[in-house]
Amino acid sequence: MIILSKTSNLPLILKASAILGVTEVLFSILFRYLGLEDFQMVPYLRLVTTVFLIAYLFYKKLIIKDSIKRIVYYNSLNNKLVFYWILITLICLIVGIFRLNPILYIITDFFYIFFGFLFYRIIQTSVNINSEIQKLEINTVHNTFIILLLLLSIICLFSKINIPSFLLVLSLSFSFFFFFKKKYLYTFLYFIPFIIQFTTANRAILIVFLLFATLSFFNRPISEKTLFKVISLSVTAIIVTPYILSFSIKQILPLISDGSVLKARLDQVKMLMEGKYNWNSPEMLSLKQRIDEVLIVLKFWTANVFNFVFGGGLGATIEGHSFKDVGVGSSAILGKEKIHNIHILPFSLIFRYGLFGLILFYLLLKNLFLNLFKVLTTKNSIYSSLILFQISWIIYSLPAASFLWTSPIFWFLLAFDYGKNK
């Protein structure tokens, strides 16, 4: 209770992260007690945590009429992205209703985008971003958040539940920031949650970690003079990395206990790199599932002009009785006959929004690369680490699409460009 009371002095981004993190961990324990597995509890956790954050923002009177009444157009990529997203969501809401998609999924699809838009607008209308960034530069602000983060990580470890994904990515972002500030104690403390989660980490968080590990070699902003050198090193790294990775995996695999999630993921990578894989084998089941989803979406998308332009609309589902991945069926609220979750991000967007979804994915990629260039070419700062969260969260969501738009923190940080420049 003492720690929670101290969170009242935190910047809004950390305060919101604390509320979401505590809520997710407590309800994960409750849902586990009620017999739900990890995949089964995900949709309920997203809904509960978002509702708790909305309630807090209402309590603090941060959700005001200006948040949705006054439309602000600011010439930034993030602003275009968010306003385009809410526009196509409204269009595809009509499409979903016209197609008689499951009402539950129509409501939840609209809920996350609408409140994501609202979270974005709260930052634009109610928060002084420059003040937020200045607070985040203060070490004592991080002390309270680190204590809470480590406490939640330890609870997750002993309760055998996953640390909230957004907290892992956020902690890696801050660890990256303090690494370049040469404050190695903070670097290590923010890195602890990833260490705790490492043996049960999914592919997405491992990819994000590799991104941070790569960026750690750039200890100063890239200039025009060093740009060619960086490009040359990057091309060399792309060529050499598969060989280094293959060798490293062969050395690491014997040291990892059988049955662990990490070993299964590394086995998949090893088989793919060696070309010795069987799509029908248990080891490749989850990857085969993703490919099956992609093929179904492509068949649906190209079936007619209406599907191509508008997609399936909000709440669109596919039939999944032929899927062998048990986790996919068990996590579907309405059962195998109405599977709503398409894992691969671009195809998830295409399935919901059609051609509009493909344009949305282009805007997300443009956001990713421009922000990555911004991080590499500007002085290391807390602002850069927050921008890096945006980049990392998009990358994290590439193989796990729905994580992208269901995270309030993602929408909060999209507004930082607007707030910092207004």
What is this entry, summarized?
By secondary structure, this protein is an all-alpha fold. It has 22 helices and no strands.
Protein architecture, described:
This is O-antigen ligase-like membrane protein. Keywords: Membrane, Transmembrane, Transmembrane helix. The chain crosses the membrane at residues 12-35, 41-59, 80-98, 104-124, 136-155, 161-180, 187-215, 227-245, 344-365, 393-416. This protein is mainly alpha-helical. It has a domain at 2-221 and 355-421. Helices cover 73% and strands 0% of the residues. The chain is built from 22 helices and no strands. α5 packs antiparallel against α6 (103-126), α9 (165-180) runs antiparallel to α10 (184-197) and α17 runs antiparallel to α18. 36% of the residues are buried. The model is unreliable at 1-5 (pLDDT under 50).
The helix-and-strand class reads: mainly alpha
Overall 3D form: globular
- Main β-sheet, in a few words? none
In whole angstroms, the N-to-C terminal distance is 37 Å
Helix count from the secondary structure assignment: 22
Estimated helix fraction: over 70%
Report the β-strand fraction as a percent range: under 5%
Report low-confidence residues grouped into runs of 5 or more: 1-5
How many strands appear in the DSSP assignment? 0
Keywords: Membrane, Transmembrane, Transmembrane helix
Protein name: O-antigen ligase-like membrane protein
Transmembrane segments: 12-35, 41-59, 80-98, 104-124, 136-155, 161-180, 187-215, 227-245, 344-365, 393-416
Organism: Flavobacterium croceum DSM 17960
